């Protein structure tokens, strides 16, 4: 062993640490499926074999066959064609309703969070009272105000009656961010209201409400189909997933399972995909490990 | 003394909330367009002459300005006269009486089942976090939460009533067997399944996630360091920590579960209040609507107050005002 | 003697918590001269952070006045008239850099934020160049520019916060326990940085700490706060040599010394003193202590 | 007589998204009954992982990959959760850094202490339990009436005292104190340290005191171990480490203390930052921050050199072939 190893050399720079391997993103089946369904609904005019609204009275309640891929309903309409064009209506309603309720929720929630305590308390009481009014009552009355139901009025009805839960999340989030030190710091530096809103509030609270918004999309789809099924939604002549399913009770008598199962399965697969996507938006990236 | 004062305070809060609720419902209902005469007189209303209409409106007290109508309704209500149903032409209470029991049976049982099962499932998932059991419960739960209630009802009818002929598909009891508990139970199975499956996962998942957050708290380490077992920590410490927010949420959702039975009641032709509420709202059956809304709203407010009182016992910080609103 | 940079006069701030009224800051007065590091020391709950927040206009004091460069910042009209000056010439550094930096912004964006707010044309070309320069100033390399606060260590984050404050070339830096949440070895680095900034670039600091040991090294004058009142103000050397108020003595003896034998044999004085009373009186030139009149 | 605790060559790793973290790398030390050992190091050096791994309080991603832990001569390395539970509380217990979050927020102090008492004496009658809780509160210097309070009503110092009462409930023979004073005010800090010392003398509880501040440790510790990048780099009695430090890292820690600074001189700072414990550098991990580093420091890990019976340090500077260096730290003087 030579003594040269024991000479003093002082500080030598370390080789830079290896960059962490880029995280591979898991391929996402639900995003793919949802994309396919969305695309299919948007472009349905290109490939559906029959006019979805045409009532082929000679072929009522036919089971699935080569001629009618998914069978026909009790009024002789082709279910395969109806699913795609009905999906367009259902999804349109869902997106519009979600947009409406999110807009109301964000405005109401941030207003409540930024307001002085007494106004905040008042607004929160208001939502609580609104919550304790049965939603059915609200929906029916709103329908009455808006007149003959169509896709837009249904979306408005759903949107206006489903914003409370997001509003509460928005309120808590905004409150939390508002009193955080980086916002105080920005205020001290002279950041105006819009600067703080744009640079600090929005980027920090959007990800946390994204999950809620996606879940709201899901409940809007369910709400549309339920309303139509109950007969207070879209009329039979406007094809949507809900109005298709409103024929189910007749189908039950005719024992025509495909009228119930096939549109329902489409509905559920869509909902599942949305739920899965929503769960991915949840921030659980650097979640601590369980202490238990 | 403080207990009495406390109860009085809560009671006052309850009364005030009910009053506000009744004003809101009253105004919404009356301000909405629609012809209440139709529900009273049926088709005859459309053939009435203007004079006849005026007389009819006068008779039903629809002429006066809104506040007067409300004041009259309130004073009558306080004396125990809740008005008559326009559609059924009898006292509102009578209409409700026949169906209240059915709804309480269905909704109440459903509520209790959801309440208990969601806690159980949530704790189970948290105990076996990320193990096989947790994963499968989560998967099945997610799917169940995606199935719309009305569709599930249809499929269950299709399967158990139409195809297998095991269970009845409609009604609360077979005619002539009203007093037979076994028969009632058979009629309850399907609606109850739909109600429970439709709501269960939402609450169970919430319990699970809140518990998972809780077991990451520092105090769990101290509890473990002093020699407590997993069960003791999970039940005595963590569960206790999340119960307040769970109670608050489930109290708010009483109308979703109790009142939301209307879909199920409609599909299964179950004679309950849900279907009645739906009808009354649709056909401007004012007095009936008021009573039903106040009933369901009152249930919510009452449950919230109970939850609040229970929470203050569980977590003294709430009473001291150290923590903000839970929901 | 020139007029002080910051003149705090009879400052009183009250918190209301339900029916409880807490006098967090009770009749506090002190002056900070240009170019000095003024230490404000006290335990948690003594009101020292409240003073800082009043100086930064985050809280509105119940009584008293604060003059900054001759502007009464408690007077709304004067404050509005000098808004831009106040926002640029006073800067705050927080204790917890993890929460005072927005986690969704990169270091470059954070450091350049004040310039962006005030739409200052960056003298070095771009905001990014400006941020790079400021980082260099506080001893951070270019490689930090595109990182997010979570990717940095505590010491680095605190440097970023300092760089952000420095970018406006403030006349007064208020540092609210900037080193309390750092490791001892990192504390030394940040302390040296403060000292360097004061000596070489003439920055003025209001430095808040709970630890007298830190203050001794850094500050030229120190005020000791106890339950909302200043109990003693003195030049650092004098305070350590001749502490007059019993609370100051207690705080001094709480400083641990890295000598096991001496430390073990040293008894602790009682810390639970009665609430301070009296008025500040001058015991020696520049050395004030709270005494009963 | 065998030592109370004997840790031999213990290694602990974590799985993290960025790779395998070698948090503890071959640590050996032993502790006699009634002794106070301080473990000092910067945050992230693995000192608190070391304590938690001995008590098996680590999350599932952590694993003991090598070495043995002997408690009173019994090997507990492979103990199951059930067996560990019997030891926790009675054989060893732990104090945590943040007293604000270490207590369950919804339970009264008394119940939390009582629970800890009952773990190992489940059949204790109610009155005796109440007496015992009062006794424990008295021991840590709290009014027994505090048993009826919830944590939110207590100050930081009082909470740390309550945590101490919980930890002492079953009279453990060994107490791990993980930065027990870091979150507290200076004055409270000194009181808690004195309390720890008093309890150790009264009950004979051996204590492992973890801290990032050497100055804090001087008051309470019998022996001091300096930890860096997952390894112990110097161990010795408090006197040896403070008066005759041998490892350059210990020199750095001592010199960086503000209490040591002389007016007018800049504070000494240790250059650079601790290395990442994912794939740590070969050789001495401190070399890249050490102005006295030798060429061999970058090649080979230094062994533990023995200086006296109790004093050890892991640096090549102690090798007979190395150049002699005058330590840059003198004895502290007022």
CATH class of the largest domain in chain C, please?
Answer: Alpha Beta
| SSE string of chain C | EEEHEEHHEHHHHEHEHEEHHHEE
Biggest sheet of chain C: strands, sense, closure?
8 strands, mixed
| Unreliable stretches covering 5 or more consecutive residues of chain C | none
**Count of the domains of chain C:** 2
What general outline of chain C do the C-alpha atoms trace?
A: globular
Give the % helix of chain B.
Answer: over 70%
Total number of domains of chain B: 2
Largest sheet of chain B: none
Total number of strands of chain C: 12
User: Class by helix and strand content of chain C?
Assistant: alpha/beta
Task: Summarize this structure briefly.
Chain A contains 12 helices and no strands. Chain A has 292 residues and is mainly alpha-helical. In chain C, 36% of the residues lie in helices and 26% in strands.
List keywords for this structure.
heterotetramer, B: 327 residues, mainly alpha, MetI-like fold, C: 293 residues, alpha/beta, Rossmann fold, four-stranded antiparallel β-sheet
Describe the protein:
The complex is a heterotetramer of chains A (292), B (327), C (293) and D (334). Chain A is built from twelve helices and no strands. Chain A is mainly α. Chain A has one domain (75-291): MetI-like (MetI-like fold, Orthogonal Bundle), CATH 1.10.3720.10. Helix content of chain B is 75%, strand content 0%. Chain B has 15 helices and no strands. Chain C has helices at residues 48-55, 76-81, 83-89, 97-100, 107-117, 127-137, 154-166, 184-201, 212-218, 236-241, 246-254, 260-265, and strands at 6-17, 20-32, 37-41, 63-68, 71-72, 90-93, 172-176, 204-209, 221-226, 229-235, 279-284, 287-291. In chain C, strand 7 (172-176), helix 8 (184-201) and strand 8 form a beta-alpha-beta unit. The longest helix of chain C has 18 residues, at 184-201. Chain D has ten helices and twelve strands. Chain D has a single domain (5-91, 172-318), classed as Rossmann fold (3-Layer(aba) Sandwich), CATH 3.40.50. Helix content of chain D is 29%, strand content 22%. In chain D, the strands form two sheets. An eight-stranded mixed β-sheet of chain D has the order 6-7-8-3-9-10-12-11, sandwiched between helices. In chain D, strands 2-1-4-5 form a four-stranded antiparallel β-sheet, covered by helices on one side. Chain B binds chain D through residues 217-219, 221-230, 232, 236-237, 240-241, 314-317, 320, 322, and chain D through 55, 57, 81, 85-90, 93-94, 96, 98, 101-107, 115-116, 119-120, 150, 152-153, 163, 166-167, 169-170.
């Amino acid at each position: 062993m030579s003594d040269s190893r024991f000479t003093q050399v002082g500080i030598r720079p370390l080789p830079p640490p290896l960059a962490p391997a880029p995280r591979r993103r898991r391929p996402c089946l639900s995003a793919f499926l949802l994309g396919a369904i969305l695309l299919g609904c948007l472009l349905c005019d290109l490939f559906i074999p029959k006019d979805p609204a045409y009532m082929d009275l000679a072929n009522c309640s036919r089971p699935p066959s080569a001629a009618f891929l998914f069978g026909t309903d009790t009024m002789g309409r082709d279910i395969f064609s109806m699913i795609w064009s009905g999906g367009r209506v259902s999804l349109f309603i869902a997106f519009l309703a979600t947009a409406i309720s999110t807009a109301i929720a964000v405005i109401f929630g941030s207003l409540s969070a930024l307001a002085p305590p007494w106004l905040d308390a008042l607004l929160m009481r208001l939502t609580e009272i609104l919550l304790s009014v049965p939603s059915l009552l609200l929906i029916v009355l709103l329908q009455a105000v808006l007149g003959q139901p169509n896709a837009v009025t249904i979306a408005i009805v759903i949107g206006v009656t489903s914003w409370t839960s997001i509003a509460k999340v928005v309120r808590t989030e905004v409150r939390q961010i508002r009193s955080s030190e980086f916002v105080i710091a920005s205020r001290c530096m002279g950041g105006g209201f819009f600067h703080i809103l744009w640079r600090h509030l929005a980027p920090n609270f959007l990800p946390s409400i994204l999950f809620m918004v996606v879940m709201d999309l899901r409940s809007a789809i369910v709400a549309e189909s339920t309303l139509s099924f109950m007969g207070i939604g879209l009329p039979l002549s406007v094809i949507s997933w809900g109005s298709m399913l409103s024929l189910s009770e007749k189908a039950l008598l005719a024992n025509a399972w495909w009228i119930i199962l096939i549109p329902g399965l489409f509905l559920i697969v869509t909902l599942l995909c949305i739920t899965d996507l929503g769960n991915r938006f949840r921030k659980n990236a650097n979640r601590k490990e369980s202490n238990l | 003394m403080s207990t009495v004062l406390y109860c009085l305070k809560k009671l006052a809060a309850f009364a005030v909330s009910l009053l506000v609720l009744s004003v809101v419902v009253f105004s919404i209902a009356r301000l909405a367009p629609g012809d209440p005469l139709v529900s009273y007189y049926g088709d005859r209303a459309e053939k009435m002459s203007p004079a006849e209409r005026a007389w009819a409106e006068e008779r039903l007290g629809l002429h006066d300005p809104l506040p007067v109508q409300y004041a009259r309704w309130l004073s009558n209500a306080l004396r125990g006269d809740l008005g008559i149903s326009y559609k059924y032409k009898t006292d509102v209470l009578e209409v409700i009486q026949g169906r209240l029991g059915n709804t309480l049976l269905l909704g109440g049982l459903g509520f209790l089942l959801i309440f208990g099962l969601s806690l159980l499932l949530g704790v189970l998932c948290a105990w076996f976090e990320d193990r096989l059991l947790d994963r499968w419960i989560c998967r099945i739960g997610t799917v169940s939460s995606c199935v719309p209630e009305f569709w599930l009802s249809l499929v269950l009818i299709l399967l158990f009533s139409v195809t297998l002929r095991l269970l009845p598909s409609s009604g609360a009891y077979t005619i002539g067997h009203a007093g037979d508990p076994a028969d009632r139970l058979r009629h309850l199975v399907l609606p109850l399944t739909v109600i429970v499956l439709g709501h269960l996962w939402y609450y169970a998942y919430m319990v699970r996630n809140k518990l998972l957050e809780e077991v990451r708290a520092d105090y769990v380490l101290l509890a473990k360091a002093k020699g407590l077992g997993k069960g003791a920590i999970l039940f005595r410490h963590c569960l206790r920590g999340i119960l307040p927010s769970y109670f608050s949420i489930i109290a708010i959702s009483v109308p979703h579960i109790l009142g939301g039975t209307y879909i199920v009641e409609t599909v299964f032709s179950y004679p309950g209040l849900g279907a009645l509420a739906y009808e009354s709202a649709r056909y401007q059956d004012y007095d009936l609507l008021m009573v039903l809304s106040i009933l369901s709203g009152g249930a919510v407010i009452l449950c919230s107050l109970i939850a609040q009182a229970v929470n203050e016992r569980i977590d003294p910080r709430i009473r001291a005002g150290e923590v903000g609103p839970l929901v | 003697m020139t007029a002080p940079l910051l003149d705090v006069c009879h400052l009183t701030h009250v918190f209301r918590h339900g029916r409880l009224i807490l006098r967090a800051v009770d009749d506090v007065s002190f002056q900070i001269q240009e170019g000095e590091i003024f230490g404000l020391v006290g335990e948690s709950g003594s009101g020292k952070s409240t003073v800082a927040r009043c100086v930064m206009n985050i809280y509105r004091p119940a009584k008293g006045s604060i003059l900054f460069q001759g502007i009464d910042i408690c007077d709304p009209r004067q404050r509005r008239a000098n808004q831009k000056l106040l926002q640029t010439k006073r800067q705050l550094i927080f204790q917890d850099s993890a929460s005072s930096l927005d986690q969704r912004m990169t270091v470059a964006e954070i450091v350049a934020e004040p310039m962006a707010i005030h739409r200052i044309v960056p003298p070095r070309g771009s905001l990014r160049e400006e941020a790079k320069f400021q980082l260099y100033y506080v001893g951070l390399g270019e490689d930090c520019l595109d990182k997010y606060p979570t990717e940095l260590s505590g010491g680095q984050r605190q440097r970023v916060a300092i760089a952000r404050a420095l970018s406006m070339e403030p006349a007064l830096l208020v540092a609210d326990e900037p080193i309390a949440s750092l490791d001892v070895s990192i504390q030394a680095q940040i302390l040296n940085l403060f000292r360097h900034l004061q000596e070489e670039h003439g920055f003025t600091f209001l430095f808040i700490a709970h630890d007298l040991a830190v203050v001794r090294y850094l500050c030229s004058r120190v005020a000791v706060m106890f339950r909302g009142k200043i109990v003693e103000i003195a030049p650092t050397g004098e305070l350590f040599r001749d502490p007059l108020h019993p609370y100051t003595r207690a705080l001094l003896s709480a400083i641990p010394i890295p000598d096991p034998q001496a430390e073990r044999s040293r008894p602790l004085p009682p810390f639970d003193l009665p609430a301070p009373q009296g008025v500040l009186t001058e015991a020696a030139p520049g050395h004030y202590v709270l005494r009963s009149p | 007589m065998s030592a109370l605790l004997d840790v031999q060559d213990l290694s602990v790793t974590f799985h993290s998204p960025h790779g395998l973290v070698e948090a503890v790398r071959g640590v050996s030390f032993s502790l006699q009954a009634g002794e106070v050992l301080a473990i000092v190091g910067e945050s992230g050096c693995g000192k608190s992982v070391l304590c938690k791994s001995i008590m098996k309080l680590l999350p599932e991603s952590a694993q003991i990959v090598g070495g043995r832990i002997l408690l009173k001569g019994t090997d507990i390395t492979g103990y199951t959760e059930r067996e560990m539970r019997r030891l926790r509380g009675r054989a060893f217990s732990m104090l945590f850094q943040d007293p604000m979050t270490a207590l369950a927020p919804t339970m009264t102090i008394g119940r939390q202490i009582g629970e800890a008492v009952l773990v190992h004496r489940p059949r204790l009658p109610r009155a005796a339990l109440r007496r015992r809780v009062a006794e424990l509160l008295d021991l840590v210097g709290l009014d027994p009436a505090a048993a009826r309070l919830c944590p939110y009503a207590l100050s930081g110092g009082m909470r740390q005292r309550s945590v101490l009462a919980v930890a002492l409930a079953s009279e453990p023979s060994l107490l791990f104190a993980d930065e027990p004073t870091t979150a507290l005010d200076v004055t409270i800090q000194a009181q808690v340290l004195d309390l720890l010392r008093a309890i150790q003398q009264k009950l004979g509880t051996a204590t492992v005191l973890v801290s990032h501040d050497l100055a804090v440790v001087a008051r309470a510790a019998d022996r001091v171990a300096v930890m860096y990048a997952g390894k112990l780099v110097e161990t010795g009695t408090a006197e040896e480490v403070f008066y005759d430090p041998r490892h350059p890292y210990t020199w750095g820690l001592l010199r960086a203390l503000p209490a040591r600074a002389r007016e007018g001189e800049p504070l000494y700072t240790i250059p650079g930052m601790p290395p990442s414990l994912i794939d740590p550098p070969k050789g001495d991990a401190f070399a890249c921050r050490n102005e006295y580093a030798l060429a061999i420091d970058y090649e080979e890990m230094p062994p533990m050199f023995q200086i006296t019976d109790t004093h050890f340090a892991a640096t090549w500077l102690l090798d007979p072939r190395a150049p002699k260096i005058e330590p840059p730290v003198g004895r502290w003087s007022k």
